[in-house]
Amino acid sequence: MRLSRYLLPILREVPKEAEIVSHRLMLRAGMVRQESAGIYAWLPLGKKVLDKICNVIREEQNRSGAIEIMMPTIQSADLWRESGRYDDYGKEMLRIKDRHERDMLYGPTNEEMLTEIVRAYVKSYKDLPLNLYHIQWKFRDEVRPRFGVMRSREFLMKDAYSVDLDFDNAVIAYNRMFVAYLRTFARLGLKAIPMVADTGPIGGNHSHEFIILASTGESEVFCHADYLDMAPPPAGIDFRDPAALQATVDQWTSLYAATEEKHDVAAFEAVEEGKRLSARGIEVGHIFYFGTKYSEPMGAKVTGPDGVERPVHMGSYGIGPSRLVAAIIEASHDENGIIWPDAIAPFKVGILNLKVGDAATDAACEQIYAALTAQGVDVLYDDTEERPGSKFATADLIGLPWQIIVGPKGLAAGTVELKRRADGARENLSVESALARVLG
After folding, report:
1. Residue 315: beta bridge partners?
2. Can the peptide bond before residue 305 be classed as cis, meaning omega within 30 degrees of 0?
3. Tens of pLDDT along 405-440?
4. Which of 258, 305, 292 has the alpha carbon at shortest distance from 277?
5. How far apart are CA 158 and CA 137, in angstroms?
6. How far apart are CA 322 and CA 317, in angstroms?
7. In whole angstroms, what is the distance from residue 146 CA to residue 142 CA?
8. Among 176, 150, 182, 141, CA closest to 161
């Protein structure tokens, strides 16, 4: 993509309404624009990052055996009355009526609708196990939306729902998602720690929030410092092997880790002093077994191998891709701007032409641009007539992992400058060597 043809509305001044780093940088980098309180338009740069995050999530969900569907955003109030949640949900739910005065709502979540799909099509234990997920926009009318897309009213959510015959099989499904989440966050460049979360009236131990540590986190969290050095599950882990899944879950739940709400002071103090870690945390995912909470009142039943009909056991598994964009920025930035992990950077490489109109510089940039695009690399070619300093600032602000800087002086010596955004390292290399490094 040529920057001269791209919509990238960079702000040089820090927006006054932005309270946290991610909100400031997303506005300054032209990733989003606020349309009303807690509702944002995603501009080209932000949309590219959002799509790449969704692709990573989708790949790991598919790898685990989950199946993608798409449910509507507008739901019938009748479904929520069946589950008993319509009147209990509160003002966060946007309740509406259609032209026939039927009660509808803009979905804040999809347990009821998924349960309706299950009761319509899943009749036998032979149809199980099943895990259905979708990535969809949702709306919750937050009383005080703040921190940009970190706590907005409209947001993108990946929610998955497992369906199983009984508790034992539901635990296997839970473990499958637990492992998939560890892999997902690792691929996004995040060290997410699974922490014990509230299970509400269901009880039990099968509810975890995945938390990343960040100074601007919403709440205080407590954990064993060894979590920071744990390696994520390998790509080759067998999601069909319950023992392997359980072993991974056991490893990642063997040490103390709890949010403020579930913090046990005595248990934390039992951790050796040098290993106690208390910090601010940002929730990036939540998995939760809820048993027959919806299947029982809504009649989602299957016939078991013994011929007896029984309600299915279910769980829900959420990740907010739009929230993740902000969380990743909170965890990965410096004074110059965003530092994207390679997997989700909007462009892998930026080409900075320091003297547009110079024949040799233009030709070298075109050569590099053609070579990279031919290899399927996402490239942003800054072919504008901005000053070099402005180009450097823009490339750092939007977080381009690799920057190939092309100017007349370097070309006269047969080189271009290659900069790595993550650590600021710079090298003067031939065009061929720079390309090999970026593609390697």
Report:
1. 162, 289
2. no
3. 999 999 999 999 999 999 999 999 999 999 999 998
4. 258
5. 9
6. 16
7. 9
8. 176
